[in-house]
Amino acid sequence: GQQLNQSPQSMFIQEGEDVSMNCTSSSIFNTWLWYKQDPGEGPVLLIALYKAGELTSNGRLTAQFGITRKDSFLNISASIPSDVGIYFCAGHPVGGNMLTFGGGTRLMVKP
Amino acid sequence: AAGVIQSPRHLIKEKRETATLKCYPIPRHDTVYWYQQGPGQDPQFLISFYEKMQSDKGSIPDRFSAQQFSDYHSELNMSSLELGDSALYFCASSLGDKGRLGELFFGEGSRLTVL
């Protein structure tokens, strides 16, 4: 199936630092989305991107749909302890209806 | 606001037993998705239903079956359970085309442990 390569796998940062993570694929995607999952909970949608080149913000979060439609990044500015969790990129590949998830980035924030 | 309700939250079964998970979507949502998430893994799509009909099928084993009922709730039936079936099972719901755009709302999951 379609594969999303997400990096880094984990990050350990100081509170107040900015964070950047990205997702790439060898295939073209129609949509890119970013979800956050807290331990023992279901993923929660953070940002959805539908057009190549689209840049969208949600509070301290900013994400972009790569111009090649094969990648996306998520930035978190001024991190706080509650940002801790696993961040998943996800998307719909061209010709596919199933939402495919990346491997996740585990974010840890040191107060 | 009402969210996706899953039950049970935790379930412990023996090998070769059967388990049934239930999912109640957000009111007025017409599409239900089932995902399986192993420890340290990303969610893997199993199956989805739109208006009570199967719409897409992913990596769902033949031992598993699912359906969506007239009230839009869905059940995932798992038979001949294996140790490898131990995982978090998430149900998600969406409204019409929003699901096609990836706007899924996930439940809190059902944790299945097979001993």
Computed Rg of chain A = 13 Å
Strand percentage of chain A: over 45%
Q: What fraction, in percent, of the residue positions of chain B are helical?
A: under 10%
How widely separated are the two ends of chain B? 36 Å
Shape of chain A: globular
Helix content of chain A: under 10%
Strand segment count of chain A: 11
Mean pLDDT of chain A: 93
Q: What kind of assembly state do the chains in view correspond to?
A: heterodimer
Largest sheet of chain B: 7 strands, mixed
Task: Name the structural class of chain B.
Answer: mainly beta
The description of the largest β-sheet of chain A is: 6 strands, mixed
Total number of helices of chain A? 0
Low-pLDDT stretches of chain B are none
Question: What is the succession of H and E elements of chain A?
Answer: EEEEEEEEEEE
Number of strands of chain B: 11
What string, H for helix and E for strand, traces the elements of chain B in order? EEEEEEEEEHEE
Rg from alpha-carbon coordinates of chain B: 13 Å
Helix count from the secondary structure assignment of chain B:
1
Biggest interface, CB < 8 A: A-B, 22 and 25 residues
